Amino acid sequence: MKYFYIYNVILLLFISTELLVAQDYDSLKAVVASSQIELSDKEEAMWQLLKEYSWSDAGYSMTIIDSLLLLPSVNKDSSSYMEVVRYQGKTQRAVGNYVNALDFYQQHFDYHHRNRDTLQMAVSAGQIGIINLFNGNMTLAQDYLLKSHEYYTAKGDLSDIAGANNALASFYSNMDQEEKALERYAMALEAYTEAKDTNGMANVHANTALILIEQKKYEEAERNLKLQGKYDTILGTNWGLGFHHDFMGYLYAEQERYEEALESFKTALKIREGEQSHYNIDESRVSLANTYLKLDRPREAISQAERIFDNKEQQQSLTHQQSAHDILAKAYEKIGDFEKALLHHQEYKSVSDSIYNRDHLEEIALNDAKFNRVEQDNQIALLNAQKEASDRLLSQKNRTIAIGAIGLLLISLLSFLLYRVLKKVNSQKTKLSQALNDKELLIKEIHHRVKNNLQLVSSLLSMQSKNISDPSVAGAIEDGKARVRSMALIHQDLYQKQNLKGVNVSSYLDDLAKELFNTYNINPDRVKLDMDIEDLDLDVDTIIPLGLIINELITNSLKYAFPNGESGTLKIKLHQEPEGLLLEVADDGVGFDADLINGKKSFGTKLIKALSRQLDGDIEMTSENGTNIQIRLRKYEMA
Question: 58-69 and 78-94 are packed helices; what angle lies between their axes, rounded to 10 degrees?
Answer without folding.
Answer: 160
